[in-house]
Design goal:
The chain has 144 residues and is α+β, with helices and mostly antiparallel strands. It has helices at 6-12, 15-36, 58-81, 120-130; strands at residues 2-3, 39-44, 47-51, 94-98, 104-108, 114-118, 136-139. Helix 2 (15-36) crosses helix 3. The radius of gyration is 15 Å and the shape is globular. The two termini are 18 Å apart.
Length: 144
């Protein structure tokens, strides 16, 4: 998921306000991750990435991922509406992309190593997000 208007907000708000805002929003999302039992992969700026069904076989993972993600993503949209943008007081609106398919995972790097997901599945989900209407979940044909 990414935040609509994040770049404008960063121009208008102080760095401290941006950090507090992201901490509030992402803490709410972290609570949903626990409830829906999905894995928080990473946050980069205004991007919050989760994955589900990673350790399962392909068919069960597809069904598990689709069902869990649709629930957690709907909950994220609802939670975001309760948080206000610090520069204008408007509710947060998200763009969310959902795609399922194979990925490779691993820890990369020597300094501050990170667990990452790799593969075209991640790229497709990112494209679904970037072409999504604000406040919606854009689901790929492969996942529908």
């Amino acid at each position: 998921a990414d935040i609509v208007g994040f770049t404008d907000m960063c121009s208008a708000a102080t760095p401290y306000e941006v950090m507090c805002f992201l901490n509030l929003l992402y803490s709410r999302f972290d609570g949903l991750v626990d409830i829906y039992k999905v894995y928080k992969v990473e946050t980069i700026g205004d991007c919050y990435m989760v994955a589900g069904g990673l350790p399962m076989d392909a068919l069960r993972a597809h069904v598990h991922s689709t069902l869990l993600h649709s629930g957690v993503l709907q909950a994220m949209l609802r939670a975001a509406r309760d948080v206000r943008m610090p520069h204008n007081g408007e509710p947060v609106r998200l763009r969310v992309g959902l795609h399922s398919g194979p990925v490779t995972s691993g820890v990369v790097g020597d300094r501050m190593p990170r667990f990452c997901l790799f593969g075209d599945t991640v790229n497709v989900a990112s494209r679904m997000e970037s072409t999504c209407r604000p406040g919606h979940i854009h689901v790929s044909a492969a996942t529908q």
